[in-house]
Amino acid sequence: MHPGELDGKWYAKYWNPVMAPMPEHIKEAIGLGPQPPPLCLSPDDAATLSDTGYGEFENGYSLFSDGSAHIATLTLMPRVSPAMVDWWFWWHAMETERYKLWYPRAHLYAEWSGGTVDRSAPHRDRYIGGTSFVDEYVGSSLGELAIQFVHPDKLGFSDNSADPDEATAICATVGLSRVPLDWGHLVHHVRRVKGGAEMRSRFWMGGKYVAPRAGATLTDELETVAEGLRRLGDGHARAMVVHCSQEMNHLAAFLPDIFDEFQRSE
Amino acid sequence: MHPGELDGKWYAKYWNPVMAPMPEHIKEAIGLGPQPPPLCLSPDDAATLSDTGYGEFENGYSLFSDGSAHIATLTLMPRVSPAMVDWWFWWHAMETERYKLWYPRAHLYAEWSGGTVDRSAPHRDRYIGGTSFVDEYVGSSLGELAIQFVHPDKLGFSDNSADPDEATAICATVGLSRVPLDWGHLVHHVRRVKGGAEMRSRFWMGGKYVAPRAGATLTDELETVAEGLRRLGDGHARAMVVHCSQEMNHLAAFLPDIFDEFQRSE
């Protein structure tokens, strides 16, 4: 949260604590409040994000009767390419200071585990299979999270072998970092549009998406934590819309330049 | 709430039931929802409001894990001087009808106790040490409050002996008026800017700030009331941002004229 922490980093100049105002379409969506669940994309249909055009529900949130929430945000990213976003999801996760560039007011800590260390691999192959442990505020609540990147085919995408400069889908299972509990799933689908890219983010969290992490047993202690994660209220869902929109808009503002400088120095 | 109540008062013409629209920066802050606690000014650092420039968190609210909330609002006050605000905090508190000018839709009642009665004392010295008992709506909730003005040095300010036309800090402990319970603290720091003044308001309420008033014992009955005050939710914090912004913007619109007329008649 302090600029001094970046002293000596070549990318220090990209740290900007001033967040851009929220886009009008996000303000509008938040003003509308919770929306009908049938409008929402289900995780089983996530891959339809690759289809041309837009879905019924591109911005806002919905609260389901099982306590889960669906969150959708559209971020316009002028001058950005899908390949830059793939680069970012690999590059930022390696170092707390990089992670802080993304959302200076809310991002506290990042640590990486797993994935490939093959520096000749395409960027997307470097984060798939790895886990980003992060501490970040969502609203006023501190989340200590394990973002486990998965191959897009796990959410049904078949086109990630296509030109990464045309589209990419960043997919992850989101869990807690201190206990082996998963909370839900996310996808950031990024595609080329005139003058840059657009990112369509989707989250499915809480309710039936809460599960012990592969191999873990749901002890009584873990069940108590799980119970707290299952019921996502209006405040939490709204905070996630705001958080996602804020960080992605902030990223879009410096990504083309930091990516360009990174490439020139490699 | 009725204009007729002001019949015969020389200041009746300043009663205006139409509130100005909320400033864009307040709408934006409310749209963002609760913010990360580490961004907030702590009461121990309140005096840094005297520093040049702005802090990380000038507008909005944050919810802390102990149930307390921090509220921050910036109000632009063209044509206003810090000395006028000092005058207002003394003058308005003496009479319900004056208090109603401030926020016709929400202010119901005001009664004054203590402070100095020396009419030759500077205005700020007349309200410091006194208590303003007020009934007012914050959102849909009626608050029956005891605003106990304290010397700014209690919050660490050392510069209130400086020119009152350059800056002033109005500091108070806020409690309930019917039971001896304090709820939190506030400061309105006002400084000269080009063309007028700006007011930076800060509230720390609920949670650890709830305490029996000097000398009072925390009986079981009082503890029940305290328990209710400790946990401030999203709705209450948001209502306080709106309330403070509304009343201070409304005040700014008539303060230069009413102060001028008051001075000419003295």
UniProtKB/TrEMBL annotation, chains A, B:
Residue span, DAPG hydrolase PhiG domain: 44-259
Names of required cofactors: Zn(2+)
Keywords associated with the record: Hydrolase, Metal-binding, Zinc
Top-level division of the source organism's lineage: Bacteria
Keyword Metal-binding in annotation: yes
Family: Belongs to the DAPG/phloretin hydrolase family.
Name under which the protein is recorded: DAPG hydrolase PhiG domain-containing protein
